[in-house]
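tool=predict chain=A
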Amino acid sequence: MAYSMVDVSGMSGVSLSELSQYAETGLLNPAFGGLDKDIYYEKQELLRLQQILFCKEVGMEETEIESMLRDDPQDVIRIMQQHRIEILEEALRLHGLIQTLDKTISHLQGEQELDENELYIGFVNKGRHQLLPDASSQKEKTDLAQSSTAKETEGLELKSKEDYLDSQAKIDRIHLDLQQAIEDELEPGSPDVQEIIGRHLEWIKGYYTPTSEIYRDLANLYVEHPDFRKMYDGYHPSLAEFLREGMMIKAEQDLS
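tool=predict ok
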């Protein structure tokens, strides 16, 4: 199906002038021009526009975006996976910042004490580690790969890619084990399920160190956010709620 520039602007929130600029620079060429002198986009162009928006979301310049989108499709996938990690990390940082605000408000209202170590949670993204190389450094890495020190750089890149794949395999295994626990009619508080939830907590700690409150709020987010809900429904229709209940128990027992 083809969409006019007006249609695409309405769908994406990208202004007509921006779309025109993308067409002029070659960053996003339309699929074809119509007899009505309008220009049209098909699914491939819509996907490319989404990739452009993701790149801009994480601060990439247009020159860097154009270079990235010329890369091999597998490289694009790898970079998009890195973007996903960065966005997830930022979401978790903001989640921690909300908790800091709530605790500070409560403290100023005389409702609870606030530990000095909790004053700055969310302002600094502690424990952040990069699973894949930054998209902004791809050209530099490519140039280095052609130099005498290329093997060392490639080795680091391969290790970071393996870290990412290992992380994704771990969380997928956790979800599959929870799915099996539901099918075996286990309770979220049972030792077997809590062992799985413990692995989930350790996986989260690879990106962010949650407090009890944050881990509970994250559990609610899994159920309430449509994107998370859709992902968990792909494993089992009850998985989001099952995971939330298990996380609530884990937060009470291990994080309080």
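Residues 73-255 form one domain. Confidence is low (pLDDT under 50) at residues 126-159.
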